[in-house]
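Need C-alpha cells for this chain, all 158 residues.
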Amino acid sequence: MEFSPEEVLRFARWTSDYNPLHVDPAAARQTVFGQNVVHGVLSVLRSLAAAPLRGAKEASGLRSLEVDFLGAVLPGSRVQVDPGESAEGFQVSVTGSETGERLLAMVGEYGPRELADDNPREWVSRYLETTPPEAIRRPQPVERRLAELVTEIGRAHV
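Here are the C-alpha cells for all 158 residues:
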C-alpha cells in the first residue's frame, strides 16, 4: 500500500483536517518526521480494506476497533498490510516495507449493529448533535507540554 501526496491532500479537503503535519511541507520538515505524514484515519481506512470478513455475519457489523499508532505512514513510502483472523474478528498489522518498522496495529470485532437498520447514517446525526462545532474542525495542531502528557498517562493507569 502506498499513499501519494495528492491522496493526502484530497483526504484533508474531504475531512477538513488541514493539520500542517499532513499538508504543509515546510511545517512538517520542522517535526520529528521531517516530512508530511499520512492522516492516521486514512491509513486505518485503507488498511481495513484488507481485513478478513470471515465472522462478519449478514446481520452484524464492526462492533469495535482498537488501533495502536506505533509510527508514521509517510506519503510515497510503501507499507505492507498483513491481515489475520482473531477469535471474534480480525487483526491487521501495517509495517514499513523498507524499514520493517511496525506502524499500525488494529484489532476489530464483529457483532450486532447498534444503529437502526432504516437509518445507516444515524451515527453522523448523533455525532453532530453531541459534538461542539469547534471540535469538528481543528485548523492547528494541539500543542501539549511533556508534563501534561505524563499527567494524562498517570491518570489513565489509576
